[in-house]
Amino acid sequence: MKQVLIHLFFNLSFLCVSFSDLLAQTEKFDAFTYIAPKGWRKELAPERVMYEGIRNGKFAQVYIWSMKTSLGTSQADFDYDWNSLIVKNYAPIEKPQIEQKTEDGWQVSSAAFPIKTSNLEFVAMLMTFTGQGKTFSISVNFNDEGFLKEIEDFISSINIDKVENLQTTTTSKNTPQNQTTTTKSNSKRTAIQYTTTNFDDGWTAIALDEYVRMNKGSLEVRLYYPDNQIDNRRPQNTSIFEPYYWQAKVNPEFNVGQVQVREKEAYSMGQYDIWESYATDKNTGKKSYLAMTLAPISGSFWVVVILANDQNTLRQNYPNYNSCIKMRNYNKFAVDAKDLVGKWKGGDNSFLEYYNAYSGSYAGSESSAMSIDWTFNNNGTYESTYWVVAVKNGLLAQNSKSVYKGNYSVNYWTLKANNRSQGDPGEFNCQFEAVRGGYILFIQNKKFTSLTEVLFKNN
Questions:
Q1: Burial (0-12, 13-18, 19+ Cβ within 10 Å), 353
Q2: What are the tens digits of pLDDT across the range 354-388?
Q3: The pTM is what?
Q4: In the chain, where the domains are located
Q5: What is the CATH number assigned to the segment(s) 196-330?
């Protein structure tokens, strides 16, 4: 049976199906179009679509899982799918033999294996595809060979939308210097054009759904995004948060050993301990020496997890707290004009109280607030508005509005906008920073470098 099923997998030529020759109505999910089996039940979820056929007490299920960013190799992608889709749900006794081949530019890893539960026996199949920086998978469950023809016809009908594999690169003068490989995102995140950055110092950063993953040689760093839901559950009336975030971020992903703590430097402000342990990745089975620390931001934290082959390698590269949190500097991605189209909003505020240096008596207060709005249009025009309100000693001191309109262009790390204020050439450094579910846009005036705008998509 197993050899029959693997033969079925490798004789599917679904990537080159001509739909003009097919009379049945096609359906679409994520990056795929296909012809669903007639009479099968459809079940749709954000991350997959499932079709189920039931006949004479027997069943068959076919799952198409959404396209996402590859982990880098076909083996890593298959291992991830195996653990998250199969082991997590069915707990098979052992990992099956994997068959591999190349199909129309995709590396295909597949396996078929029996599953036995307390009240059900069936055959499961998993097929993972890796190529062009992307990966997706198809999984099948059935307990009657009478469904094989319908399964084969269904999978053979699947057609993949064109995956853009742009290879344009550029070098930024920002620190760290970088080259940007452009790939089009198909993850659950808000899509931007350039989701991978290759830095000149050898590091590579890629924005994933839960964290930014950075790699250099055998080193891997995961920068987990601040998460309000996790923050809201953390313990109150304490400033010791490392145990909580270790439990929230490390334990779900890794089997860990005894924890060692490198305590923060004495009298340090804003620093956190570094927690360390030998660890095994639950998805891939890879063994590493792991370190975790916290980088605070606006009442939340970036959780920094570092993975190395051994303790000495990790500590040589990350001898202290500051060397760990500097990895935040690699969370940067280039900007394309398509990414800018729409409305962006930002702002800032400040409050100062003055005291007499000699008497110590109160000498007044001053507060100010700025609201920033940018609108980038498809036709290459823009409008930006700056509202400034200042109050001094309880009296309105300033209430001004500045509006600029003109044309704009963007080239990876540089934004140009004409018709700015006098003396302002309208050239900006620009970059995206990945956050949970999307990206923040940073714009810094090249001439007036103290002026940095932090913008959120507002539509």
A1: exposed
A2: 444 444 454 455 565 678 899 999 999 999 998 87
A3: 0.58
A4: 2-160, 196-330, 337-457
A5: 3.40.1000
